Amino acid sequence: MKNEMWSGRFEGFSSKLLEEFNASLNVDKDLFKEDIKGSLAHAQMLCECEILSKDEFKAIEKGLKEIQEEIENKNFIFDIRDEDIHMAIEKRLSALIGAEIGGKLHTARSRNDQVATDFKLFAKSSNLKIQSLLKELIKTILSLAKEHKTSIMPSFTHLQHAQVVSFSFYILAYGFMFLRDIKRLKASYDLANYSPLGACALAGTSYKTNRKLSATLLSFKEPMPNAMDAVSDRDFALDLLYDIAVIFTHTSRLCEELILFSSSEFSFISISDSFSTGSSIMPQKKNPDVCELIRGKTGRVYGNLISLLTTMKALPLAYNKDMQEDKEGLFDSVNTALASLEILNAMLKELKINKENMLKACQKGHLLATDLADYLVRKKQLPFRQAHFIVGKIVAKAEKEGIDICEIKNLKDYDENFDEEANSLLSFENSLNLKQSEGSSSIKSVEKQIELLENFLKSS
Ligand code: ARG
């Protein structure tokens, strides 16, 4: 078929293979709202600059709104021969209001700045949606943290028992990861807040346009200062892909721990039936599929980032068709993030914490050993290395006796450096509250951390 858009230059017909290979309509039709919004702002700007008459602008506005309704009501016929959403809408506009006026919309614009604008608008609104889901997640973490300030559990390094902490302290660690994720998204949003619209093909235009106006109409802070950069830049997509990749690093770690902690080996937590699945053969099974899926989806989210980085690498300025490959991955990462954060939050709301099992687990692994060493440093002014050695000996002795050091009745019997008072160290609660440093696991510090997160939510 002959392509109407560039029929002036071409004598021959497009190959059917080319039409299909070249088209991005199946993917970028999801940008129809952004495209119409961008066109409305562009047309209004052209009108204010007297490049379009008021009547022409009114006709274009009416036509674009009609097209939006057609698409929303599924009455719009998508034809792959239109190549992409920008051409599909422009063609339909001319059919609706006549090519005489419809054909004027593309004055002082190119698809290069148009697509960059649409895609940026999508990235900005997706960024905000992800931020608000992360805020919901932090709220759920806060309510778990408030409820479990005294729910004692072992912490781990190398997945070996380390020290006593509370469930509250543990889950707050994730709260602060998600807080950083929100801050990272905000930084990306600010960087993306400059409008490419009006950059045209790459060099700007000979019309006296007002890019500041179209930027403001689209809620951008300002126009991008260099037209060539404006049409070549996909940093905003990379930034969002990276932000989502980091979010999934965090959710995959949380999900991994929920899987471990809900296994019969740990039994620290129980995932609600409504977020678990069964087995087709083993009647007893209750599987943490949601956590596994979120953990698994991390792979595709990382892949989408690497894929666009690779597409953009070494591309000559300005627009190259390679860049049409930018959308699928970002759409996928955004959808994956929205769905995963929503279900993770719902699942966490129904999470059951098995306090008794966590407490029982603290009785293994000599979790109090560091507290004993610290005591010797405090009371006897021993160098920490020497205290470490003494407590190491006590641990070795307890191991031989087949007990945990928390079961020792009188520490003095194990080493004469300890006195009567030292026996108060043999309590998990004391261990928790002995911590004095900022950000520690003590109840006082945990309360401060809760306050910090609450204030962040209030102010953002
Ligand atoms: N469908 C294209 C894309 O998504 C729109 C930009 C086309 N520009 C061009 N010069 N062919 O990248």
TrEMBL record:
Transmembrane segments: none annotated. The lineage of its organism: Bacteria, Pseudomonadati, Campylobacterota, Epsilonproteobacteria, Campylobacterales. Its EC number is 4.3.2.1. This is Argininosuccinate lyase. InterPro entries: Arg_succ_lyase_C, Argininosuccinate_lyase, Fumarase/histidase_N, Fumarate_lyase_CS, Fumarate_lyase_fam, Fumarate_lyase_N, L-Aspartase-like. It catalyses: 2-(N(omega)-L-arginino)succinate = fumarate + L-arginine. Keywords: Amino-acid biosynthesis, Arginine biosynthesis, Coiled coil, Cytoplasm, Lyase. One of its GO terms (biological process) is L-arginine biosynthetic process via ornithine. Pathway: Amino-acid biosynthesis; L-arginine biosynthesis; L-arginine from L-ornithine and carbamoyl phosphate: step 3/3. It is found in: Cytoplasm. HAMAP family: Arg_succ_lyase. Residues 8-303 form the Fumarate lyase N-terminal domain. Residues 367-433 form the Argininosuccinate lyase C-terminal domain. One of its GO terms (molecular function) is argininosuccinate lyase activity. GO terms for cellular component: cytosol. Pfam families: ASL_C2, Lyase_1. Belongs to the lyase 1 family. Argininosuccinate lyase subfamily.
